[in-house]
Design brief:
Blueprint lengths: L2 E4 L9 H4 L3 H4 L9 E5 L1 H9 L4 E7 L8 H6 L4 E5 L1 H8 L7 E6 L6 H5 L4 E5 L5 H13 L4 E4 L9 H6 L9 E3 L9 H9 L3 E5 L6 E2 L3 H4 L4 E5 L8 H6 L2 E4 L11 H12 L3
Parallel strand pairs: 1-4, 3-4, 6-7, 6-11, 7-8, 9-11, 9-12, 10-12
Antiparallel strand pairs: 2-5, 3-5
């Protein structure tokens, strides 16, 4: 049965996950039992529940309790539901809630790269992409356009960042993903060696003199292929490009040199994904 709690100020420590914790605190490695993430909107929360994630608490506008969050609340059993009017919640969280509903979930244990890539033929690898909007958009494109899994390097934005989760529209709970490496020093050499050991040929999306068009038939023929995309602006580091088996470009028109990383990813996933 739902446990509804009316709130009016910041003195309730149970509200800390929604507005009082830093990203580092929410990913705590020292105390993994306290690690958590935030999902926003009934649809995204529903996907997290479908995937088996454990809800810790809900925060929502009062009008949603008997509205579009009703099914979510019933699925969460006796999970606490903190509620107030929109104006109060905006003041507490510092931002307008998308559709007025947030849920704090227990963060799952990290998955090994080997487990995530088992039986995968096409994977995406994100190198140092720090914008959560781009990470979320890439996750959604990878899930929808034929990637079997997604890996992020240790310097990449957390795929369970609140904005990344929201932009992914919950696909972060559907597409297997993992962090490749324990520290920044593990990439690119250690990470690329792991991918090669797992049977992947690696394709760097980069503009170089030796890059081949993305529709080159050699790429489609690869049994296992990892598509590696780099950070906004600078792209992939030179060492990554040098260690990859292919360097790939998307042919452009009208003198345009490149696309935003999430647009480039969508094109690459469509062209080379397992349809």
């Amino acid at each position: 049965m739902a446990h509804i709690i009316e709130i009016s100020d910041l003195n309730c420590p149970e509200l800390a996950p929604f507005f009082g914790l830093t990203g580092r605190q929410m990913r705590s490695k020292r105390d993994p039992d306290k690690a958590l993430f935030i999902a926003e909107s009934p649809k995204v929360i529903s996907y997290a529940l479908d995937a088996g994630y454990a809800p810790l608490s809900l925060l929502m506008e009062r009008r949603h309790i008997e509205g579009d969050a009703r099914d979510i609340i019933s699925r969460c059993g006796d999970t606490p539901v903190y509620t107030a009017d929109r104006e109060v919640l905006a003041a507490l969280t510092g931002y307008e809630l998308t559709r007025g509903v947030l849920c704090a979930f227990r963060r799952p244990a990290p998955r090994p790269v080997e487990e995530v890539c088992r039986n995968a033929r096409r994977i995406a690898v994100l190198e140092g992409i720090v914008d959560p909007t781009n990470v979320g958009a890439l996750m959604r494109s990878a899930a929808g356009l034929g990637m079997d899994a997604l890996l992020v390097t240790p310097t990449c934005c957390d795929p369970l960042h609140r904005r990344a989760v929201r932009v992914s529209m919950g696909t972060v709970f559907q597409l297997p993903w993992a962090i490749i490496g324990e520290s920044p020093a593990d990439w690119p050499y250690g990470g690329l060696e792991t991918l090669h050991t797992l049977g992947f040929r690696c394709a760097a999306l980069a503009l170089t003199d030796r890059s081949i068009p993305i529709d080159d038939p050699r790429l489609a023929r690869q049994e296992q292929l990892a598509l590696i995309l780099g950070t906004e602006g600078d792209g992939l580091c030179p060492e990554t490009v040098d260690w990859c088996d292919f360097t790939v470009r998307i042919p452009m028109a009208h003198g345009v040199d490149s696309l935003n990383v999430h647009a480039a990813g969508a094109v690459a996933f469509y062209q080379l994904g397992r349809h």
